[in-house]
Every structure is written in structure tokens, then in C-alpha cells.
Amino acid sequence: QELRDLEVSAPSPAGLAEVEVCKPELTAALREIRTQYESIAVKNLQEAEEWYKSKVPGAGRGFGEAEPSPSPDSRGPRRIRPHPGPTQPLLPLQNEALQRQMREMEDEFGEEIGNYQDVVGRLEQEIQQMKEEMARHLREYQDLLNVKMALDIEIATYRKLLEGEESR
Description:
Residues 1-168 form the IF rod domain. Residues 95-147 form a coiled coil. InterPro entries: IF_conserved, IF_rod_dom, Intermediate_filament. Keywords: Coiled coil, Intermediate filament. By secondary structure, the protein is mainly α. Among the domains are: 1-57, no CATH class; 125-168. It is built from three helices and no strands. The chain starts with a helix and ends with a helix.
């Protein structure tokens, strides 16, 4: 469920790429936690059954055997409460371990983000320098084109003068 929530809350395709990078680690961690909780649940269920069998007379007998009816004063608990066993102290430790792992991953990805931002900054700087260089080359080209046109006009003028001299 948490994995689906992470996938749904991903803000952008770039964010998806970051989530996909840590997905195998997160999936493995979630799988491990799930198996731990399942084993704890099975253990608690067994403890509850043992407790119930010890508190309720005849719980271990089959259907064909007669059971004494409980008196109104000796009613057992109506609801089985979970036994506060060794699972209670483990939850804060697991939570702390997961938070520590999350902080480590945030630090690691924070460093990677910083590195990528540095690369992006350098590339943007290079793009700006190339744009400035292109603008300079364009101005030089325009200046050369203007000089060429002026020289073409001057050549045409001299050609007319020479043709005028020859025709005299």
C-alpha cells in the first residue's frame, strides 16, 4: 500500500526516475517488514489460542464431548485482547531504523541532486557562452557582408567608369 502511495504521489517524470532508482531497496525493505509482522501475527495468534485454551475449560475437546455450561459469575472475557508481548518494544526500534534509513537515503539523494544541479549550472553557463559567441560571429558576418556589398558597389562604379573611358 505504501509503495502504491509513493507511486501515486510522485510529482513529475523526473521524480518518477528518482523513485524508480530506490524502488528495489524500498520493496525489499517493505517485504522484510511484512514478513516480520506476519510472523509476529502468527505468534500472537498462537499465544492467544493457548491463553484461550487455558482460560476456557473444554476448549481443547472435540465436538462430541459434553461441556459444562459456564455459570453467570465465571464468564470469560468477551473479546480477546492482544497480548502485549515482545512486539511492542520492537515497533519503536523498527520505526527508528526505517527513519534512519530514510534520512540516509535523503542525504544520498540530496548529494546526487546537488551534483546534478552543478552539472545543469555548468551546462547552462556553456549554453550562454555559446549564444554570446554565436551572436558575435553573426555580427562579424554581418559586418563582412556590408563590406562586401560596399566593395561590390565600388567595383561596379569603377567598371562603369572604365567602360565610359573606353567608349570615348
